[in-house]
Design a protein that fits this description.
Cytochrome p450
C-alpha cells in the first residue's frame, strides 16, 4: 500500500509524472521522506521540473550507470546543453573546459585521459598520503579556539581536501581560497534553475581558472617536479600525450571534484554521527570499523543526489518508458542508497550492516576516479576529529543548502 503523499509533491500513478520543486525547503532539508514515498509508489518517474525520466531503485541505478547505451557525452556535441537559452556564446570558456573533461567524454578519448590520470589515484598511491592527511587534520584542529564555537565547514571540512589536492597537483596551497571560489562558481552551473548571471559568473571563473593553470603548466614544463601536473605533462599512453587543453580540463576536474563532494560528505557525516548520540569514538575503534563507518556515512547521506546521462539510441528502459537518442535521464544516487529492497532499515544508521554498499561514487567507466582519496580523507579526518574532541556537539541545528542535487550543509557550528 502506498504511503501518504508528502504535502509538497504531486505524483500521478497512471502517468508516473512527478511534480516536485527541488527548491522546496521541506524537500532539500530532508529528501529521504520523498524518496521513501517514491520507492513505494514508483522507482521510475518523469520529474516535470527537470523534464526527464528519473530512476531511484538501487538495482536500476547501478545497472544504468554501467549501461553503455547511455553516456555523459552529449551526442549533439555541446556539453551540458540544458540551459536557459540556445545561445551559448557567453559560455565559451566554460564549454571549452567541459569539452575536454573526462567526466563529459566517452571512449576512446575518455579511456586515454582516465588511464593517464588514474596512476596518481590508485589505492597504493593514495595510501602514502595517510600520514599527511592525519598531520593536516591535527593542524586544523589545533587552530580551533578553546572554549569557542567553530563552523567545521570552513575551519576543517573545506581546507583539508583542497590542501591535499593542491599539493598533489603542485598548485600553491595559498591559492586554496581562490581555487574554492572558482570551483563554487563553476559547479553552480549544474544546480536546477540557474540564471544568466550564474552562467556568466561560471564562464569568468572557467577563464580565470584556465589562465592560472596554463601559467602553472608552462612553469612545470621548465621545472618539472614530482607532482601530478608534471606527471600529466610527461605521461604518454600508446604514444599519445595530453594536449594542454586536456591537461587544463583534467586539473580543473580534479581540483573541483577533489574537494567539492568531500566537503559536503564530511559535514553530512559529522551531522549523521552526532545524531546517533553517545561517544562517537565507538565508530572508530579500528581501521575496519572506521572504514565501515565511512561507507555507512556515504550511503546514509550522500553529497551528490543526481547524476545525468544521455541516451545514445532509442531505448525502452522499463515498460512504458522509452527514451530517444540525445534525451537525458536522471539517476538518483541518494534515493538508490535508501532503497528498502536493497537495504534493511535504510533510514537507520548502521555501520555494521551486512548489506553495506552504495552508489555514491557512481559505477561503470565514470566511477569516481578520486574515490580512494575521498575515502582515505574521510576515514582519517573523522577519526582524528572525534578522537581529539569526543564531546563534540552541535551548537546550532544545521540546515542544508538549497542546491539539490549537491546535498551539503550551509554551516556546521559545533561546541566542545
Amino acid at each position: 500500500m502506498t504511503k501518504s503523499t508528502p504535502s509538497y509533491l504531486a505524483f500521478d500513478p497512471a502517468t508516473r509524472h512527478l511534480r516536485l520543486d527541488p527548491h522546496e525547503r521541506a524537500f532539500f532539508q530532508d529528501p529521504y521522506e520523498a524518496y521513501t514515498f517514491l520507492h513505494d509508489a514508483s522507482n521510475a518517474f518523469f520529474w516535470e521540473e527537470f523534464g526527464f525520466w528519473c530512476f531511484g531503485g538501487f538495482d536500476d541505478v547501478n545497472k544504468l550507470l554501467r549501461d553503455r547505451r547511455f553516456g555523459r557525452q552529449n551526442p549533439a556535441g555541446i556539453p551540458d546543453s540544458r540551459g536557459i537559452g540556445r545561445d551559448r556564446t557567453h559560455l565559451k570558456a566554460f564549454d571549452g573546459i567541459e569539452a575536454n573533461s573526462m567526466l563529459e567524454l566517452e571512449p576512446p578519448v575518455h579511456t586515454q585521459l582516465r588511464t593517464l590520470v588514474n596512476r596518481a589515484f590508485v589505492s597504493r598511491q593514495v595510501e602514502r598520503l595517510r600520514p599527511r592527511v592525519e598531520a593536516l587534520a591535527n593542524e586544523l584542529i589545533d587552530r580551533f579556539e578553546p572554549g569557542k564555537q567553530v563552523d567545521l565547514l570552513p575551519a576543517f571540512a573545506s581546507p583539508l581536501p583542497i590542501t591535499i589536492i593542491a599539493e598533489m597537483l603542485g598548485v600553491p596551497v595559498e591559492m586554496g581560497p581562490q581555487l574554492l571560489d572558482w570551483s563554487h562558481r563553476m559547479v553552480a552551473m549544474y544546480v536546477h534553475g540557474r540564471t544568466r548571471e550564474i552562467e556568466e559568473t561560471a564562464n569568468r571563473a572557467a577563464q580565470d581558472f584556465a589562465d592560472f593553470l596554463r601559467g602553472t603548466i608552462a612553469e612545470r614544463r621548465k621545472n618539472p617536479g614530482d607532482d601530478l601536473l608534471s606527471l600529466l605533462i610527461s605521461a604518454q599512453e600508446g604514444g599519445q600525450k595530453l594536449s594542454e587543453d586536456e591537461m587544463v580540463s583534467s586539473a580543473i576536474l580534479l581540483l573541483n571534484a577533489g574537494h567539492e563532494a568531500t566537503v559536503h560528505q564530511t559535514g553530512n557525516a559529522v551531522r549523521s554521527i552526532l545524531a546517533q548520540g553517545g561517544d562517537p569514538r565507538r565508530f572508530f575503534t579500528s581501521a575496519e570499523a572506521t572504514a565501515a563507518a565511512v561507507e555507512e556515512c556515504l550511503r546514509f547521506d550522500a553529497p551528490l543526489h543526481m547524476f545525468t546521462r544521455y541516451a545514445y539510441q532509442e531505448i525502452e528502459i522499463a515498460p512504458g518508458i522509452v527514451v530517444q537518442p540525445g534525451q537525458t535521464i536522471g539517476l538518483l544516487l541518494g534515493m538508490a542508497n535508501h532503497d528498502a529492497h536493497a537495504f534493511a532499515e535504510p533510514r537507520a544508521f548502521r555501520p555494521d550492516r551486512a548489506d553495506q554498499k552504495n552508489v555514491s561514487f557512481g559505477a561503470g567507466i565514470h566511477f569516481c576516479i578520486g574515490a580512494p582519496l575521498a575515502r582515505l580523507e574521510l576515514q582519517v579526518s573523522l577519526k582524528t576529529l572525534f578522537e581529539r574532541h569526543p564531546k563534540l556537539r552541535l551548537a546550532e541545528s544545521p540546515s542544508f543548502r538549497d542546491t539539490y542535487h549537491f546535498h551539503g550543509l550551509e554551516a556546521l557550528t559545533v561546541g566542545f
